[in-house]
Amino acid sequence: MKTDNRPWYWIPFLNFASGLPYAIIISVSVIMYKNLGINNEDIGIYTSLLYLPWVIKPLWSPFIDIYSTKRKWFLSMQLLISIAFLIVGLTIPLSNFFIISLAVFWVAAFASASNDVASDGFYMLALEKEQQSFFLGIRSTFYRLSMLTGNGLIVVIAGYLEQEYGDKQKAWSYTMVVVALIMAVITIYNYFSTPKTETKIVENETESVPHKSFGIVFATFFQKKQIGLILAFILLFRLGESQLLKMLTPFLIDPTSVGGMGLTTQDVGVIYGTFGVISLTVGGILGGIVISKDGLGKWMLPMILAMHLPIIGFILLSYFHPGSVFYIYLTVIAEQFGYGFGFAAFMMYLIYVADGESKTSHYSIATGFMALGMMLPGMLSGFIQEYLGYGNFFIWVFLATIPGLILSRFLIFPSDFGKKSEQE
């Protein structure tokens, strides 16, 4: 296996190309549809359905291993994503833009999920073990930077164009064309920068790696100890968060007359795309540090509480509607930091669940159930919010975090799991 493939040149942009489409499809689409007049019920149900490709990703990921190379897969998928975003931008001025754009976003979501599978596989094939460990942080950093670009810069651009043209349809049409061009440039760069070493690697490893049928790999996942409790925990842990994420943007943008905070699109882009992402990153890094120092057992409960308690801040905002934007910033910073800090514990537990033979496939299955736990409650979030109003909705969201918290106390895993050994 060659190690002189200049990973510094291609790893950053390969991971940027994974995070940006996800941010646009899952998060930015909510802001776009809200500004284009779509009601909360439709936003909740239809944008949550965009999670589906990540839910069922384990079902078609073996085809990416069997047919063609990982490099051809992720380049093709990135090009398809670029075209899809361009089509979304061109269809926004149409009267039936909502249905058409959702259909195209759905295609882009399948392409993005496939791109993730191929990129992850290429990363493991193209680098030596020690290189994989070294570049793990680089991958995470550039993935988060792509989220910052999507939730921050792209939203700010849309907000600026809204003010510049006084036409939200034109503003978001141009914004999506810009996103398509960014993805196209990244795709071209990845074409020239990523190494063409995969064929040789595959040939060398074909005979040494035993082939297991996907049915056996899938079945062994459901033979794990405590599997019923594990699946219930994975599905319910994000019950509150899945609804919160879908309705936060509408809450911030809606006028105070209907219970919202009355912010502009640019305000939301700055708050979440800068301060929010920075807080999320710091929380995630700190979460990894404390787990590596003391193990998951000591920090599981505190990290879950850190993730869910900031929801109280949104309850207070929705009832008191403070005039100063400082309180909104403070609440978002606390929520995003807690999310990054607490989610590290959840992901570390998923690594424990997947540990053993076929860990890559089992981790993919576990994250598929995680996406399902985000999709289904998110689909109902708009209906629940419209029925309860924002204040009572956030109270409901806070209560929805309790089942996952209770289930976490019955999980059995080594208390020192994730702790860095002294030898390391």
TrEMBL record:
SUPFAM superfamilies (UniProt xref): MFS general substrate transporter (SSF103473)
GO cellular component labels: membrane
Compartment list: Membrane
Transmembrane segment boundaries: 7-31, 43-61, 98-122, 142-161, 173-192, 213-237, 270-292, 299-320, 326-351, 363-384, 390-412
UniProt membrane topology term: Multi-pass membrane protein
PANTHER family reported in the protein's UniProt record: MAJOR FACILITATOR SUPERFAMILY DOMAIN-CONTAINING PROTEIN 3, SOLUTE CARRIER FAMILY 33 ACETYL-COA TRANSPORTER -RELATED
Name the UniProt record assigns to this protein: AmpG family muropeptide MFS transporter
Species in which this protein is naturally found: Flavobacterium gawalongense
